[in-house]
Design goal:
199 residues; two-stranded parallel ribbon; 8 helices
């Protein structure tokens, strides 16, 4: 069993929104996780779930939003759907995500759902295995879109967004970025005005 990549992710005292503490991991995931927790707190939810993560992610990363909902109408519908949830519409969202499957928490503390925690951990593992670097928002978006049982996928489907298409689109974007990086390393840039001169 591999130890959790985020050993302190589920410690509420490290994640208080007013304490300025960051979640271990990349700056991008730390910011997203902190934003998701603030949303859950403001809504009075019992846990931070993948819906909170999805909202914080799309709100903070225009590239991720563009890959999730490329068309303006689709993007507006999705963000409107998330906004409705954040102000309390949709009572089915008030219940826990994967009820009874939570990680150990202090009593009466805000919990992370299993799906949310697993998405953050898996995003980090995949990124480390692929490039040896920390995960970013696209790594997390793939994990959210690829879990058919999570609330993020429920929200995407409710907004008319196909999560499988999102996952495929993001993977293609990540692959294109990797190829571009490799090409940049192999083919040195030509500095303007400093091309080769004939003797």
């Amino acid at each position: 069993m591999v130890d959790h990549v985020y050993p302190d992710l589920y410690q509420p005292e490290l994640r208080g929104p007013d304490r300025g503490h960051a979640v271990p991991g990349s700056h991008s995931l730390s910011r997203i996780a902190a934003g998701a927790r603030r949303r859950a707190l403001r809504a009075g939810d019992a846990e931070v779930d993948t819906g909170h993560l999805l909202h914080a992610l799309l709100e903070s990363d225009d590239r991720a939003l563009g890959l999730t909902a490329p068309q303006a109408a689709q993007s507006a519908r999705l963000m409107g759907y998330l906004a409705q949830r954040s102000i309390g519409f949709g009572r089915e969202w008030r219940s826990g995500e994967g009820a009874g499957a939570h990680r150990a928490q202090e009593r009466n503390s805000l919990r992370w759902s299993r799906s949310a925690g697993d998405a953050l951990e898996q995003a980090s593992r995949v990124a480390l295995a692929r490039t040896g670097q920390e995960a970013d928002s696209l790594d997390l978006l793939v994990q959210l879109a690829a879990d058919p049982s999570c609330r993020a996928v429920e929200i995407l489907c409710g907004a008319g967004v196909d999560p499988e298409v999102v996952a495929a689109r993001v993977r293609a974007e990540v692959l294109a970025g990797m190829v571009a990086d490799i090409v940049a390393e192999i083919v040195p840039e030509t500095v303007p005005g400093q091309g080769r001169h004939r003797d």
